[in-house]
Amino acid sequence: xxxxxxxxxxxxxxxxxxxxxxxxxxxxxxxxxxxxxxxxxxxxxxxxxxxxxxxxxxxxxxxxxxxxxxxxxxxxxxxxxxxxxxxxxxxxxxxxxxxxxxxxxxxxxxxxxxxxxxxxxxxxxxxxxxxxxxxxxxxxxxxxxxxxxxxxxxxxxxxxxxxxxxxxxxxxxxxxxxxxxxxxxxxxxxxxxxxxxxxxxxxxxxxxxxxxxxxxxxxxxxxxxxxxxxxxxxxxxxxxx
Length: 241
What we know:
Elements: E1 4-15, E2 18-29, E3 33-37, H1 44-51, E4 59-64, E5 67-68, H2 74-79, E6 82-85, H3 97-104, H4 111-124, H5 126-130, H6 141-153, E7 159-163, H7 171-186, E8 190-195, H8 198-204, E9 207-212, E10 215-221, H9 222-227, H10 229-236
Parallel strand pairs: 3-8, 3-9, 6-7, 7-8
Antiparallel strand pairs: 1-2, 1-4, 4-5, 9-10
């Protein structure tokens, strides 16, 4: 039996009078890729922000490796092994590629390990090595996304949450990013993937959840959801035909 790594139970988040999450529950098994798919405004980003303690839930619990992290300090959550690659990349434009990577390792006191981790990121993303002293703001959108993923990896996460990694990228770059997600998963990192690109996400996900206006309306194995007519009609459109 697979080990439940992350468990979200009856999670509610309110913004003013608006209930962004209405009591959602889902699990992420260790070593898996799990995706949350849904339209813009469904509550996907709110979910990962709640897991990272960037927003405070009004109800529910979040458990990671059997430990309640519901209202834990964000830094402690990162120290515990959860990292997030935020929507919109959020690199530091006036810092170089290598400086951005070092910021991802700000909790580490082991300089030798930091250098090893940078070398590992460069193995995954050779283009970042070529541009190591270039300002992040001058990189292309795809390169910035690679940098955002690399920065997330610098904290040596057990669970990497990726919020809309394909957003605004050319199809060829999207293909590269999803190939890297699979490689990271093969190396032992559990992935929680938040995506509007349901087609790409469900193809690589072990399990998926469909989020609609703050509720999980459907769940199943990635390829089963991909084959579901309701999902195809709602999220995949012409791309699936």
